[in-house]
Amino acid sequence: MRFIDFIILLILGGLVGMSFIWYDIEKNATKNDVLEEPRKDKFLVNVIPENMDVSMKKERFYYLVVPAVQKVHKEWVQRFERVVKDINSSKNTQEIEALKTKYKAQSIEELLASLKPHPPSITIAQAAMESAWATSRFFVEANNIFGVWSVGKSKPRIAASEQRDDNRTIWLRKFKSVDEAVREYYDMMARARAYKDFRYTRLYTNDSFEIVPHLDKYSEIGDAYTQELEDLIRYNKLTKFDKVLPLSNYP
Which of 47, 61, 118, 128 has its CA 20 to 30 A from that of 95? Predict the structure, then answer.
């Protein structure tokens, strides 16, 4: 081997060795960066940014609430369409009967009215109204975005700052997460007798503006509440979230 070839081999070997050393340095540095700089959420439920304007308030609300609504809505859509197929094929009859018992449905039509979820735009609008765009104390301290009351001590709850006329304390549910709060809301809308007309309407249409008027019993202000909901949906173009909807020609 010529001396010059020997020198070239030494240089190449040194370069290869250095490349491995730099790789290990970069790899360790990346590990340290990950450990020292964990991912931080853009917004937190229990933290309201200072000097928050309307635009940031809505951005925070959409960030914290919309993914949960979409997730739970998708779960209800999938169950509804699966149950419809089972009914048409006479399969899983035990599950169908169990669902009828759970939702106190006297007929298949009444069961499907309970199981079919309404458009996300309605849910999002109600969440915005009931939680003051995710800034209410009940949302910040209890993940309670729909103002759901507590009727017993068996589940976590939080006291309202105001009392009823008879000096009774008003209690609201305290949820572990926004997802849990949304699930409870959908279940409440599927069960409560006050929303029977609402459920039958959403069974046959996916039009938010046809369904909303039947939410007049959700609030003490009745028709004024539903009108405000409609205005909120229109102004904020919330129907853009109604992309995945179950068919409306059931049963």
Answer: 118
User: What is the per-residue pLDDT across 26-75, written as a single tens digit (0 to 9) for each?
Assistant: 444 333 333 333 334 678 887 788 888 999 999 999 999 999 999 999 99
CATH number at residue 85: 1.10.530.10
Contacts of 66 (CB under 8 A, 6+ apart): 120, 124, 241
What are the structure tokens assigned to 103, written together? 């939702």
Look-up: residue for tokens 């081999």? 9
Tokens 């250095």 belong to 18
Q: For residues 224 and 245, give the distance between their C-alpha atoms in angstroms, rounded to a whole number.
A: 27
Q: Which residue has the higher pLDDT, 81 or 14?
A: 81
Rounded mean pLDDT, 227-244: 94
Residue 153: both structure tokens together: 């001590």
- Rounded CA-CA distance 79/246 in Å is 10
Specify the 3-state DSSP secondary structure of 170: strand
In a domain, 109, yes or no: yes
From CA 14, how far away is CA 23, in angstroms rounded? 14
Whether 130 and 228 share a structural domain: yes
Contact 143, 178 (CB under 8 A): yes
Instruction: Let me know how long the chain is.
Output: 251
Q: What angle do CA 49, 53, 57 make, to 5 degrees?
A: 65
pTM passes above 0.90: no
Residues 99 and 223 in one domain: yes
